[in-house]
Amino acid sequence: QLQLVESGGGLVQPGGSLRLSCAASGGSLNAYAIGWFRQAPGKEREGVSCISRSGGHTDYRDSVKGRFTISRDNAKNTVYLQMNSLNSEDTAVYYCAADWRPPLSSRTDCSGMAYWGKGALVTVSS
User: Fold this and answer.
1) Three-state secondary-structure class, residue 4
2) What is the pLDDT of residues 64-82, one digit of tens each?
3) Confidence band, pLDDT 50/70/90 cuts, at residue 86
4) Of 71, 63, 43, 53, which Cα lies nearest the Cα of 110?
5) Selection from 104, 91, 112, 116 nearest residue 38 by Cα
6) Whole-angstrom Cα distance, residue 20 to residue 57?
7) What 3 state SS string does 21-58 have?
8) How confident is the model at residue 125 (pLDDT cuts 50, 70, 90)?
9) 3-class DSSP state for residue 29?
């Protein structure tokens, strides 16, 4: 059973940066598409970024494009979300999620993710 653990959350001032990590155990992340999601207080969970199994395709929600970067290090079995120029609207609990994809899968979306971490809180405040 794949298990995911997020880390790297915390309190940061507006304009600052954080890097979230999603470490996996119980399986090799190189067989999975990985997504980052977030849920702000009183709001529904939303997708933030997605990286395909191969790592060759990435996607971002419009509000984070140019500020966030998703990447994967298969050797470390870890996926990262580098977040720059943070603002108060980025305050949320951030979750990573994974879904197995076959080797030649052309899917580039992060819908229907099967495995979820417990989340890491990111607070952007002065």
Assistant:
1) strand
2) 999 999 999 989 999 999 9
3) very high
4) 53
5) 91
6) 19
7) EEEEECCCHHHEEEEEEEECCCCCCEEEEEECCCCCCE
8) very high
9) helix
